Amino acid sequence: MADADDRAQRTAGPTALCVDPLGDPFLRTRIALPSRSATYLRRQRLVRHLDQALQTPLTLLNGEAGAGKTLLAADWAAGLRQPVAWLTAEEGDGRPGVFWAYLLQALRACGVPASGAIGLPSEAARVDHRLLATLAAELNERDQPVVVVLDEYDRVIAPEVAEQLEFVLHHAGAGLRLVLVSRTEPLLPLHRYRTAGELTEIRAAELAFTPEEAVALLELHGLGLPVHAARALVSRTRGWAAGLRLCALAAGESADPEVYLKEFEAGSSTVADFLLAEVLKRQKEEAQDLLLRVSVLQRFCPDLANALTERTDAEPILVGLHRANAFVEHLGHSWYRLHPLFGEILRAHLRVRLPGLEPALHRRAAQWLLSCGSLPETLAHGAASGDWGFTADALIDDLAIGQLFTGLRSGELDQLFAGMDLKAAGPATDLVRAARELSQGDVERGLSHLHHAEERLAAAPVGAAAKLSCALLEALAGRLTGSPERAEKAAETADGLRREVPGELLDRHPEVTALLLTHLGSTLLWAGRFEDARATLTTVADTPGGPSTVLPREESMGHLALIDYLNGWIGRAERKALAGVSEAGRPGSSRPCADGSVTGTGLLVLAAVAVDRDELDRAQALLHETVLLSSTAHDPVMAAGHAMARARLLLARGNARTAVEAADPGVRAVVPSPWAVSHEALVASAAHLAEGRPDRAAEVLQGVSGDQPACAVEAARALLAAGRPGAAVDLLDSIAPRGQTGPAVSVRACLVRAQVADGAGDAATARRLVEQALLSARRERLRRPFLDARPWISSFLSTEPLRELAEGWLTPGPSRPGEPTAVDERPLSLVAEELSRREHDVLERLAGMMSTEEIAADLYVSVNTVKTHLKSVYRKLAVNRRNEAVRRARDLKLL
């Protein structure tokens, strides 16, 4: 029987060439190169890669449906000088006889006729080995290789066809270059070809369109789209060729194509029709059900998928879908995700096919993820399910309430809980509501929710995590209301609760302790208990931590800087403030968001220091930046610091009356702040003096005592200006000699005493005190006290050796080698070293005179992103304009 078959194959006549082994005529469309439309975009990078196929026996184009594989191969093949045999596979090609009959017909069509020794298969189900061996031998004898392209090879599922193809490929040698275009991995031994360097591969990632290619493709469809908009479209489609083309066709019919491409509803588009027909409906029923259910997930593993399907077959289905390039991407470690556009379409289809199931799927996912310790995804799915009690409990039980205030996810969490149902009730939901209100500065509503939470906590047994969360919010309430007693009580409660909370929770959430201590330290600072505040805040500032503790560390450094400033140590204050601002620019900081969720105490201190150094424009720029922060209005320390710095700036510019209005911090606290009250009185006194009311100026200073050294010295100067030198000296003598006052206090005190001595006729003492003040001020570049002492001090500064001490930093003139010069020498290198790589990129383009829009286009980012980077660069270089930033960067050798 076999011999008869062999004879039949060898003696097949010419008429046999017109039909396949089934007796059906050969379809010429299957062996013809597919045509390319006028809107086809040739991507030269892929064509160059495909050219390598001429050097390797085997080439694989592997990607999902609509990835552009077929048209890429056809366009490349059309440009070859070598003969190209093209065959588009069909389901029937799983029968070896049919497959080889068509392949031989494709060879003949491209001008590579097989000899009579090869013959044709006579049966659909089998092919003789002699035919394959003869074909391989004839191909091996060719001087020029023939390129065989097998399109849609994934339809050929018969293992024997793959074995036969491997046999012919191996023995054809250099006479055959085989190109497989497939959605799935072929059954050929690809590993052997890879190891030998005999395989050319182009896969889905390389087939994806780049933003620039997407722009070019859309232009072919008559659509103009900027690169940043194309980047968003490519991100949504993952560069999927069919998706981009279908979107372009639909956008061409829209009144506003750019808006359509940005906002089109995937579930009701032509893209949906394509994917549902080409991908979903091709799958078995179990796989379709799984795809629909996991569409509610951002990522999934077999166990999670099983939880949603309530079956146990997810693993083999997911492996098969991934291998079939069915828009299921493998993330590694058994985790997968759907192509984003496919996911959108499946979710829309789920709502139609299985209405009402989506919330239940989110609930099952949340419960499974909670058991695995994945809190962010648990909260997202809990919120999507509408089960706010479960979601709030998950946040509180994990001790993650601090993440609403600090860390990378604070904005995301706030937005997530913004949709919380008002009917949701329980201790956890009340705590979350209180946290959100307090974080936004609504103290009244926050305290109301906190009170409800405490009532419910007292009435029902709850875990220590909930009680510790409550203590954290109590500490914040104490800070916002200026109540050290409330904050201290909360801290004491928290100390006891920490022993009851599992250690791994505390280790996972260091922000809870950091935030609590920061709130306590801020409240103590408000109350004027500087040393207690310093000890508490130093604990936070010196504790290493990750992104979640960046904001508390920054706040603590800013508050420590303010304590130093209030004690007169402006150099120390500046260094701490710069360190805090630099901390905010590190990865994990929320400062670049510019959403008002961060502190700016350090910036206020830098502004106040700039006023003391008579760098008034810089002070104004720093104060302007703090206005953008919501904490300026809500936090008492921040409000008082801003009022103090702004009032001092206005006084320095001669706007006394406006300074009085600015000096009021506008906060009503349980305990008044002694230093805030004293500074407000000082500004009022200065205004009275400026308007010729010395008695009234002295009257408003009666509450200022030596317990606030900086305020006492300023008050003494005002009393002296009011004609009361004795009262001024008495007030200076009352300052407690605690050794805590720095140059900003001692210099002013020296100048007041010097003026008193000069007025009493003791010029020698006055000169000695002025000299002492100059020596101390020169190290800190402290100019303001001397400017405020004009015109009285001018005569002293014009005499030697005082003139020499003032030259180069206080008055014009050459400076001695090694001494400070008149050039502004702010220690900005501390900040400049913190410029990120992207900020350097922006700075370089800034120096090249590029506009904001040009920088955005050159870096492939949005204009708003560039503006954010520029704002950060200006802050770190302590400048306010582009040309100043470039000049400062060049001075610091950054350009």
Automatic annotation (TrEMBL):
<dbReference type="Pfam" id="PF14559">
    <property type="entry name" value="TPR_19"/>
</dbReference>
<dbReference type="GO" id="GO:0003677">
    <property type="term" value="F:DNA binding"/>
</dbReference>
<dbReference type="InterPro" id="IPR049945">
    <property type="entry name" value="AAA_22"/>
</dbReference>
<dbReference type="GO" id="GO:0006355">
    <property type="term" value="P:regulation of DNA-templated transcription"/>
</dbReference>
<dbReference type="Pfam" id="PF00196">
    <property type="entry name" value="GerE"/>
</dbReference>
<dbReference type="Pfam" id="PF25873">
    <property type="entry name" value="WHD_MalT"/>
</dbReference>
<dbReference type="InterPro" id="IPR059106">
    <property type="entry name" value="WHD_MalT"/>
</dbReference>
<dbReference type="InterPro" id="IPR016032">
    <property type="entry name" value="Sig_transdc_resp-reg_C-effctor"/>
</dbReference>
<dbReference type="InterPro" id="IPR000792">
    <property type="entry name" value="Tscrpt_reg_LuxR_C"/>
</dbReference>
<protein>
    <submittedName>
        <fullName>LuxR C-terminal-related transcriptional regulator</fullName>
    </submittedName>
</protein>
<feature type="domain" description="HTH luxR-type">
    <location>
        <begin position="832"/>
        <end position="893"/>
    </location>
</feature>
<keyword id="KW-0238">DNA-binding</keyword>
<dbReference type="InterPro" id="IPR027417">
    <property type="entry name" value="P-loop_NTPase"/>
</dbReference>
<dbReference type="GO" id="GO:0016887">
    <property type="term" value="F:ATP hydrolysis activity"/>
</dbReference>
<dbReference type="InterPro" id="IPR011990">
    <property type="entry name" value="TPR-like_helical_dom_sf"/>
</dbReference>
<dbReference type="Pfam" id="PF13401">
    <property type="entry name" value="AAA_22"/>
</dbReference>
<keyword id="KW-0804">Transcription</keyword>
<keyword id="KW-0805">Transcription regulation</keyword>
<dbReference type="InterPro" id="IPR036388">
    <property type="entry name" value="WH-like_DNA-bd_sf"/>
</dbReference>
